[in-house]
Amino acid sequence: MGDAAPSVEEFASEDMGSADDLRAFAALCRPAVIRGRFSDWPAVAAGRQGGAAALSHIARFAAGSSAEYFTAGAELGGRYHYGEGPGGFNFTRETASIGDALARIAANAESGGETAYLGSLPADSHFPGFAEENPCGLLGAGVHPRLWIGNRSTVACHYDGYDNLACVVAGRRRFTLYPPDAIGDLYVGPVDHTLSGQPVSMAAGAPDAATAYPRFAAARARAVVVDLAPGDALYLPKLWWHQVEALDHVNILANYWWDGFAAGPDAPYAAMLLAMIAIAERPGPERAAWRAYFDHYVFRPDGHPLAHLPEERHGVLGPLAKGNYGRIRTLVMRMLRGG
Hints:
The protein is an alpha+beta fold. It has 2 domains: about 5-255, Jelly Rolls, CATH 2.60.120; about 265-335, no CATH class. It has helices at about 20-25, 40-45, 50-60, 100-110, 125, 130-135, 210, 215-220, 270-280, 285-300, 325-335, and strands spanning about 10, 30-35, 65-70, 80, 90-95, 115-120, 145-150, 155-160, 165-170, 175-180, 225-230, 235, 240-245, 250-260. The strands form 2 sheets. Strands 1-2-12-9-14-7-6-3-5 form a 9-stranded mixed sheet. A 5-stranded mixed sheet has the order 4-8-13-10-11, with no helix packed on it. Helix 1 (about 20-25) links the parallel strand 1 (about 10) and strand 2. Helix 3 packs antiparallel against helix 4 (about 100-110). The protein is globular, with a radius of gyration of 22 Å. The protein starts with 8 loop residues before the first strand and ends with a helix. InterPro entries: Cupin_8, JmjC_dom, RmlC-like_jellyroll.
């Protein structure tokens, strides 16, 4: 557990101008704000004219599809979390056409009644043409945007398993960030009963956090708050905890998820789940022994585990890109099949 508040570096748009710039910074696993990086997007220009103009602009791209629509009563102030409602949540979800959902979000903005949002919509399928008119320029051609459109809301503190570039299109966004090693002080909820995919902190944003979650004070002392205006972007490394507040009556955000350092299709999270069932409930001394082996072979604080041998004798512990990814994966799959 760390005890110092992390820092968030800020870049001017011209100082983070290419995919190579972003990749080099991403290797540091630190968050960064890129001010004004997307100020020239037509969608951002529309957003600066107000919520109605922003929604009208986005509606131009709507493909007539339907999507999951989240809504909550005005008394909740837009805080989407666990509760006593259906499924144990304080909000409801339904399937709505994109056109109807945008109209309801616009009506909510006028009435100040319920809050709602459309979340994580792949732009290419729901808003074709958006990505072409509003290009990113910081990521490869295979990374596509998702759109988040709604009223005032607070999305519960969670982490992503991928790197995230979040670009504000309309309204203001506030991100409250916690480093990965704050996990023990965040009182994380179930991994298999979640609000929308990822486990969330039970403590962050809770009105009774001081009494119900006493260790949260240590996490809160390390929190960093980042405010973003239209055109600004936040690079958020994978596994960084973040609570996201949409601060205006109408808010639109485009985000990009990718894993720039993956050697293949297998995600680290899958390895962690497998380790849970293989190791987590073994006796403490045995877990400590496995920790030493994980450090030696996986986390490598002292360098490559076979540094004392010539590279040609490293076998499957040689570079993954030279065929060893597939060789190790074949061994693992054979073990999982019991072969």
